[in-house]
Design brief:
single chain, 315 residues, mainly alpha, 4% strand, disordered N terminus
């Protein structure tokens, strides 16, 4: 964002602007930040100076948390993205922390001010028909059996990419139809495996090469042509290739299958807590995003079925 001539004029020399100048010198000479980073700090703090000057406050000691909130609101009204506002707030916090160390100011008016939240993107999912289309493997080669088992297991149990790549043959209890996986934070959880996925895994194990590159690969459930544990990158590439073979109109990636699993489970059961456990989410707020997907589905059904949902065409 380039400062306008008006902003430069309004942010005239004052106690506040002098403090900003000292801060920028500190960033340049002590922190040795790049010229690009320095320019960013300068632009962000110039907007703060301009706002404060318009409010008749030209001393850092005059600024209250309310003034910082008004500044953030002004940036928001001007159309700045949440990430840009967050960057400006970060510059302001660093500036007031500097003054606290330099002048013994105990209060940082920007410390507790938050930028507007960015709208959370809903995860991409496939409906049941799209999943069935994707999982229709036309080949029965060794590689096709492995790829089908991988895809079925992703959708059956809602696994993360790293979780699936790390699975060993001993992690699956076929009798109880349960799988033990190690997720984020090295936490383990046990998830059910559907019969279709179990059958696909058995078809793969029937032809899985016995020769392995090392001990870790020998234990791995899924291996590459070279006898090594299959990598996450390879899994992503194979799913993308299968999507193209199946005629999908979008690239399919592991998390899309995980998201589809979560969405379909929640849509059918309505049990948010159970879906949280299955996905291995530490916080249920992470799982709640799938309720928005469910509401989207309900809204589409409503719009299509309710006689008064759609606006009538004008006569």
């Amino acid at each position: 964002m380039t400062a306008s001539a008006g902003e430069v004029e309004s942010a005239k020399v004052s106690e506040l602007s002098a403090a900003v100048d000292r801060f920028l010198v500190y960033l340049r000479d002590v922190r040795r930040l790049s010229s690009h980073t320095l320019a960013g700090y300068q632009r962000d703090l110039l907007t703060l100076q301009t706002h404060c000057h318009e409010q008749g406050k030209d001393s850092p000691g005059q600024l209250l948390e309310a003034d910082i909130r008004q500044w953030v609101s002004q940036l928001h009204r001007r159309g700045l993205a949440g990430s840009s506002i967050q960057r400006s707030l970060s510059a302001a916090r660093s500036f007031f922390n500097f003054l606290g160390r330099e002048e013994g100011r105990p209060r940082n008016p920007a410390a507790s001010v938050q930028a507007p939240r960015k709208p959370r993107k809903l995860p991409k999912t496939m409906d049941a028909d799209q999943v069935n289309k994707f999982l229709s493997f036309s080949e029965d080669s060794l590689i096709a059996r492995r790829d089908r088992a991988i895809a079925e297991l992703f959708y059956s149990s809602g696994l993360r990419l790293a979780e699936l790549a790390a699975i060993n043959t001993t992690d699956i209890d076929r009798h109880s139809r349960l799988l033990t996986v190690t997720g984020k934070g090295n936490k383990t959880r046990t998830v059910p495996v559907g019969s279709v996925a179990l059958d696909a895994i058995q078809c793969w194990l029937d032809v899985r090469p016995r020769v392995a590159a090392d001990a870790d690969s020998a234990a791995a459930l899924f291996t590459s042509n070279q006898g090594q544990r299959i990598s996450a990158r390879s899994i992503q590439a194979r799913l993308k290739l299968q999507g193209r073979k199946a005629g999908m109109h979008q690239d399919v990636h592991p998390h899309m299958l995980r998201h589809s699993f979560a969405s379909h489970m929640l849509e059918s059961s309505g049990d948010l807590r159970a879906v949280q456990e299955l996905l291995g989410h530490a916080n249920i707020s992470t799982t709640q995003i799938y309720t928005h997907l469910d509401f989207q589905h309900l809204a589409k059904v409503y719009d299509a079925a309710h006689p008064r949902a759609r606006r009538r065409d004008k006569d």
